[in-house]
Amino acid sequence: AAQDHEPSPALDATEFVRVFTNELQYTRGVTLPQASNQDKYIALVRTVLRPLIDRWQATQARQAEQNGKTVAYLSAEYLLGPQTGNALLSTGLEDTAREALSTLDIDLDELIAHEIEPGLGNGGLGRLAACFIDSLATKDISAIGYGIRYNYGIFRQTFVNGHQVEQPDTWMSHGTPWEITHPELAQPIGFAGRVEDTINSAGQPARKWVPGWYVQAVPCNYLVPGYGTDTVNTLRLWSARAADEFNLHIFNSGDFENAVRARTYAENISNVLYPEDSTPQGKELRLQQQYFFVAASIRDLVARTLERGVSYADLPQHITFQLNDTHPVVGIPELMRLLVDDHELEWDDAWSITREIFNYTCHTLLPEALEVWPVDLFGRLLPRHLEIIYRINEEFLNEVRLNTGNELLVRQMSIIQEQPFRAVRMAHLATVGSRRVNGVAALHSQLLKDNVLKDFSAYWPDKFTNVTNGVTPRRFVRLSNPELSDLLNDAIGTGWVRDLSQLSQLEPLADDSGFLEQFALVKAHNKSRIAAVLAARDGIELPSDAIYDVMVKRLHEYKRQSLKLLHVVSLYARVLAGTLNAEDIEPRVVVFGAKAAPGYRMAKETIALINAVAARINNAPELQGRLKIAFPANYNVTLAEKLIPAADLSEQISLAGKEASGTGNMKFALNGALTVGTLDGANVEIHELVGDENFFLFGMTEPDAESLAQAGYVPSKFYEKDADLKLAIDLIASGAFSNGDRSAFESIVSDWLWHDRFMALADFRSYLDIQTKVEEKYRDKAAWNRSAVLNVARTGFFSSDRSIQDYLDRIWMEK
Ligand code: 26Q
């Protein structure tokens, strides 16, 4: 039955050749001998798009007819990654395309590699949105993703003398054949201006927003194909175009040249993705982005639903808006404004509809990552929305006062903070205006209830739930690890691609030495593949027979890349000091991939330090080539797909209680890497599922870390007490990695000794000890491979298909 779901190609090789050459001729205007790689790539995409567009149109017709509930995922980020392979997979056209193109002497893989990935997200949150829309389509759910079509996605990272330098991401410079744009369907989005008293059509006093300027939101559609199903959903990203009215309002006619020039102000809105992913800057343009895409999205879906004859009161039966963090929360007052001001509903009716429609997913625990908007800025840009928020807050706080009589609680729960400046607390607005609030891993959801949103969870215990994150097995196993996929298909059939829980059928094969050897061959193959990729891409030379120890994620202090680095430096320092023989080091390649927010100084210095250490140890004769650091620049989805399948060890070493979930951790485990990790985020659930023997657990627990912080953490005590730690830090401080310049990494060294907010030094000993266990286990190949296979067999839970089912059961379809 599983075989039934294998996509069957809509074209054979002969037809493929015909359509492809036709596209070359009539959309590119070239003959085959004239065609560039860009021409061929576009012709390939347009050929593959045809059957997808047929399915897409059928999906829209079917969903309109069914008239059920549509899930609208609102996210400022979608970190899609390359599209071509996924489209070939879902159309079942990969083999056909390869065969067809080879008859024209074209290498399919070369064309696939030609694509520049749409990097319209920062990291975990944006990639999660991309996995979720994949799963929604695969599960045949009527869904639409809404977001922003940035002209420039996440910056391209380069290293200059080991320091990060950002380059603009020009992913659109040659256009993209994946996008279907409709400028004629643009809708005007207002900003600023004033609010007036007015009389509504029933003769009642009302408020009316008169915006000061407008921008047009142009829908750009992307197809989101399910796997093994006919469903092709839509990802609708909005692009900003200057409205004609724009100039009339701001400039007098007459100054034509300046009026035209001023159009770029409006078009700026969708120009660039903000690269901060943890300490949001309260930039006005960012708030413009948020309102721009949310207002366009809500109007789009509400209008289409009302057109189908649905009444206002019934909107919650037909629409659910899922808020991906607080970035789209301005949607709550926007829907209120739409219902009350534009559609003239009573406030109370509008409010009960709104609170039924929105749900909020929180992705953080760090207080500095919680979004707040100064009320003066907010009120200037969105004056009517601020009024609405004030009224929501007033009524909410009156209710809290009535129910609890606790004035302190009233202040704590207020949507408006007074100190250190008056601002809208977006997480409070989201919680008050949503029916359900969820965290992204079991521990995270618990900590949300205990800390960040504790007053709210005490007040509304049933509002809070958990949905543990997941990743799409299509992209992160089937596409990225074809050799493992073949092995799985032979062992348990092909059903796992749509039902990842079937991986549990592998369990008995963990004791089959023949299977373990085949598994080891796949891993070895993937290591050679990544070694070749890194040699060609970055000029990095690596042995392929070593432990591949991989830490890839955004650079942040709480994630503790510096702890990984201290481990490496400590091995080197001990070899130099003569307390460790290089021959006793199990050969190891430590791979880092990480972008730092451009304004995050400590993160950027950490990058420079990793590169400096790499430059030294990679050529240190004392180490006999047994320890290497590879830090390829510009880690992105394309590289992740090559790197993760090659990993033996997955580094998930955040301070317990700081990483909401993590999703890289899941991708690694599913590809048979063993995790070295703390009890943080979804690591807790991975550890629980794979079993302690198959996971390298270390470090403080969240309560441990909390007590240490309460007791007064003094990192220098750990430095004084631990000779290996001291040796490592002293080596860095001595200038060994900076040509004797002791000042180069001075701020990192003094941060370790005097602040160390995320307690890397406190976990150092435990981390070193567990890494010794890693080496011991790796020497026992059979034991290692057994654990690796058990990681695959026991982590099917982390499919984003399962996450989506949880959203359906606990949030979207919950009664
Ligand atoms: C907000 C306002 C202004 C500018 C930028 C931002 C902003 C942008 C991106 C704030 C946060 C982000 C991204 C957060 C993020 O990626 N969080 C991660 O989400 C993952 C998916 O749930 C989790 O697995 C990670 O643990 C969490 O860190």
Structure notes:
This protein is of the alpha/beta class and 815 residues long. It folds into two domains: 67-82 and 117-466, Glycogen Phosphorylase B (Rossmann fold); 479-797, Rossmann fold. Helices cover 49% and strands 15% of the residues. It has 33 helices and 25 strands. The strands form six sheets. Strands 1, 4, 7, 8, 11, 12, 13, 14, 18 and 19 form a ten-stranded mixed sheet that branches. A hairpin with a 2-residue loop joins strand 5 (156-160) and strand 6. It starts with 12 loop residues before the first helix and ends with a helix. The model has no long low-confidence stretch (mean pLDDT 96). Residues 122-125, 128, 274, 276-277, 280, 286, 327, 363, 371, 440, 469, 659-663, 681 line the site of ligand 26Q.
Give the total of beta strands. 25
Global outline: globular
Mean of residue pLDDT values: 96
What is the strand content?
A: 5-15%
Q: What value does the Rg take, in angstroms? A: 27 Å
CATH-level-2 architecture of the largest domain? 3-Layer(aba) Sandwich
Please work out how many helical segments DSSP would assign. 33
User: Low-confidence parts lasting 5 or more residues at pLDDT below 50?
Assistant: none
CATH topology of the largest domain: Rossmann fold
InterPro entries: Glycg_phsphrylas, Glyco_trans_35, Pyridoxal_P_attach_site
Organism: Populibacterium corticicola
Enzyme class: transferase
EC number: 2.4.1.1
Give a topology summary.
Blueprint: H1 13-28, H2 37-66, E1 70-74, E2 78-79, H3 84-91, H4 94-103, H5 108-114, E3 119-120, H6 124-138, E4 143-148, E5 156-160, E6 163-167, E7 180-181, E8 187-191, E9 194-199, E10 205-210, E11 213-225, E12 232-242, H7 244-250, H8 256-267, H9 284-307, H10 315-318, E13 319-324, H11 331-342, H12 347-357, E14 358-361, E15 372-374, H13 375-381, H14 383-404, H15 407-413, E16 416-417, E17 423-425, H16 426-433, E18 436-439, H17 442-452, H18 454-459, E19 464-466, H19 473-479, H20 482-492, H21 513-538, E20 547-552, H22 561-577, E21 588-593, H23 601-617, E22 627-630, H24 637-643, E23 649-652, H25 664-670, E24 674-677, H26 683-690, E25 696-697, H27 702-711, H28 715-721, H29 723-733, H30 746-754, H31 760-779, H32 781-794, H33 800-812
Parallel strand pairs: 1-4, 1-13, 4-12, 13-14, 14-18, 18-19, 20-21, 20-23, 21-22, 23-24, 24-25
Antiparallel strand pairs: 2-3, 5-6, 7-11, 8-11, 9-10, 11-12, 15-17, 16-17
Helix pairs in contact: 1-2, 1-4, 2-3, 2-5, 6-33, 7-8, 9-11, 11-12, 11-14, 13-14, 14-15, 21-32, 22-23, 22-29, 22-31, 28-29
This protein binds ligand 26Q.
Enzyme class: transferase
Catalytic activity: [(1->4)-alpha-D-glucosyl](n) + phosphate = [(1->4)-alpha-D-glucosyl](n-1) + alpha-D-glucose 1-phosphate
Cofactor: pyridoxal 5'-phosphate
